[in-house]
Amino acid sequence: SLRRQIRLTADASHEMRTPISVILATSQFALAKERTAEVYQKSFRTCADTAQHMRQLTDSLLELSEIDSSKFTLDLEKHSFTHDLVTTIDLIKPLAKQRQISIRADLPDDDVSATYDSQRIRQVLLNLLSNAVKYNNDGGAIHISLTANETHLNFIVRDNGVGISEENLPHIFDRFFRTDKARTTAKGSSVGLGLSITKSIVDAHKGTLLAESWENEGSRFTMTLPR
Q1: d(CA 80, CA 75)
Q2: How much is the pTM?
Q3: Considering Cα of 10, then 15, then 16, then 18, what sign does the dihedral take?
Q4: Distance (Å, rounded) from C-alpha 192 to C-alpha 57?
């Protein structure tokens, strides 16, 4: 636990160093002499975008700190997983539509319910589904399925995007880990903490989250939760 905390602190410091350097260099350039309005606007935009990235990083670090602490608790109640899933799918549809990505959902006719923290699990679903859009190809496809038995439910999301290399796959839930260039340069930035937070939430529910991937063919994430 101590080694992990030391590594997290070192990694967080490293992650913050680059955006801070960008903001300093950009602002110093803009202030060095009189610039045109266009140059000032470009400099402000760069600083704002970089600050937004830093905000995303600090928010994720605070969330991880909460998850690691003894204060982290789950508000466990009976919820309709089907409802939460459909609601989350509706949230990402506009993002998918922008890139002409189709979404197919195979859901049971009967409502699937389970005991879980609705806010946290919706966070998990949103991260997994938004990743399926972000790391997909324009005009690609996302397949979602939900099955359940008396004791567990199984949620699967599959995309046909860039995929993850065999070498990187075992590390995708590690904190601050980013995969190969194809994924890190995909649309949207990442601080390398989303999947780590996602898995921590699933683990806290005594569930499992598994990842499979095939480079240049896509990825499949399977979440199992007790009911």
Answers
A1: 15
A2: 0.74
A3: positive
A4: 9
